[in-house]
Amino acid sequence: MSTATVTQHSPVSITVELHTLAANGSSSKLKASADVTLVFGELGLVKLCGFSVFQGAENQLPRVSPPARKGNGSHYYATVMLMGKLQKLVYEAVLTEYAVQVRGHDVKYREQNR
Is the dihedral of CA 7, 38, 83, 108 positive or negative? Predict the structure, then answer.
């Protein structure tokens, strides 16, 4: 487990607790889970548990899925929906922390994908 805090001149501070799941060489696409804490200053905070990081083959980019519950069959239903700039900030924070753990250095996700 590792924790990273991201503050990008916004009214919210984002903290990510990432837990890597799959060892290198594993065939599982689920690579990590993450809990995200959003701190809104004096207003308080929100902790969102259960984000997932998926990655197929090594040359594919990782992607973040929001917390979800399993429905009938193999369909999953999101239990948390983020939209707009907040979604982008949270997903980038999770992917950046994943990159730090997997690659061993701090490389911004969006800089990798220019």
Answer: positive
